[in-house]
Design goal:
This protein is of the alpha+beta class. It is about 20% helix and about 35% strand. It has six helices and 22 strands.
């Protein structure tokens, strides 16, 4: 009897517990989720980054954000006090900080050494600031093999355009990178860059050492600061890489006429001396002074057309004829630096096509510029030479460590098909 009573009690308790459990599950299943509100829509202090691509303008990029039209208007209105919002560039970017239901910070990072900050208070007041970023120096080394041009080979190694141009300028007195570059030539470069924190933008670069090898000839340039604090590039013998005269006054296509005591003139139809060099180049090609000097003449002059004559030290004068126009500031008495832009190629005067008629004379007599051997502008001596030797030893060791990068061969897909 007792056993039966215990059995009935256990069954009753079991059914009571099941019923309670079932009711709790029903309560859970029928519980409604809390309604979403603006207050819990965004996580606290969430940051969104938007990067500019080619063709982007500010107003279009805001489509990627959670900003309202009123927010966008407020940001552009205040940012426009600091910058031209229509001149953003690829790889610029901005960051938006969201807090609760709105934004609190908007930071725009152009490719520069600063960024622009907008901060919004709880009463919708916006403050604008231009904030400088810290920079750090980094030394980079690179090398390559020429396939077509120096520019192409260096660009493949991610070298910035300003460093490529600087490299070409440093070696301009040794190598004509337009006419003398050959496939298989190699280069090495060690340069220092200033990198902006946060954006990692390279804002400037300075070549510390460079080397260019063509065939059996190799040229090396090393940056050295002398005891007076002046920096310049020198070869391994301590002679300045900068010569008194450049090898050419422009980037030319070809030499259409050489220095000659007897040349048949294509327009005048008779033989006469041609005491200069005709550099063929497209109209508008920039023309530079081959050496420091003073403008003696800058005006139209007979068959020369628009002509510039520059007087240099030691009795030298250079002539630049058939120019289409003069560069700004070029007039009689103007002081000129080597490599300075003075005019543009044209075909004014007696000319059959666009070219530069370049001539040089010394003590009143024209001579063949191509055969001229120009001395270096400076040769180190004394303590400067001793300090340079120490510097050279370090840079040559670093250049020797650089392995020449070979061009990646292009794999051409076969167009042959099996028949």
């Amino acid at each position: 009897m007792k056993t039966k009573i215990h059995f009935y009690l256990l069954c009753t308790l079991f059914f009571i517990s099941c019923g309670c459990s079932t009711n709790k599950q029903d309560e859970v299943l029928t519980e409604q989720p809390a309604a979403l509100t603006k207050q819990n829509m965004f996580p606290m202090h969430e940051i969104q980054t938007v990067l500019f691509n080619y063709g982007d303008v500010f107003i279009n990029t805001f489509k990627q954000t959670r900003l309202t039209e009123q927010d966008v208007s407020l940001i552009l209105q205040n940012l426009g006090k600091l910058i031209d919002v229509n001149k953003c560039k690829p790889n610029d970017y901005y960051e938006i900080t969201y807090s609760d239901s709105s934004w609190t910070d908007f930071n725009y990072f152009p490719q520069d050494i600063c960024y622009y900050s907008l901060k919004k208070s709880s009463d919708n007041t916006v403050t604008c600031d231009k904030i400088d970023l810290q920079t750090s120096k980094q030394t980079i080394s690179a090398s390559g093999t020429i396939e077509n041009s120096l520019w192409e080979a260096m660009s493949l190694q991610k070298i910035k355009p300003d460093a490529i141009m600087a490299f070409a300028d440093i070696f301009a007195s040794k190598i004509d990178f337009v006419t003398e570059v050959r496939k298989g030539d190699t280069f090495k470069i060690i340069y220092e860059v200033d990198i902006v924190e946060k954006t990692h933008t390279i804002i400037s670069s300075k070549i510390l050492a460079g080397q260019y090898t063509m065939g059996t000839s190799s040229y090396t340039a090393i940056l050295y600061k002398n005891l007076k604090g002046n920096e310049a590039y020198f070869d391994e013998n301590g002679q300045s890489m900068k010569k008194v005269f450049l090898k050419a006054p422009l980037q030319f296509t070809r030499i259409s006429s050489f220095f000659s005591k007897k040349r048949y003139h294509p327009i005048l139809k008779y033989y006469r001396p041609h005491e200069g060099i005709d550099y063929a180049a497209p109209s508008g090609t920039p023309v530079s002074a081959v050496a420091d000097g003073t403008v003696k003449k800058a005006q139209r002059s007979g068959g020369y057309g628009n002509l510039i004559i520059i007087r240099h030290p030691n009795g030298y004068e250079t002539y630049y004829g058939h120019l289409s126009r003069y560069a700004k500031g070029i007039k009689r008495g103007a002081k000129i630096k080597q490599g300075q832009l003075i005019g543009y190629v044209g075909m004014t005067g007696t000319a059959t096509g666009p070219h530069l008629d370049f001539r040089i004379k010394r003590n009143g007599k024209f001579f063949n510029f191509i055969k001229m051997k120009t001395p270096p502008s400076v040769t180190l001596s004394g303590q400067d030479k001793e300090l340079f030797e120490l510097r050279k030893k370090i840079e040559l060791a670093d250049l020797d460590k650089i392995k020449i990068e070979q061009p990646v061969p292009e794999v051409k897909k076969s167009t042959n098909t099996l028949k």
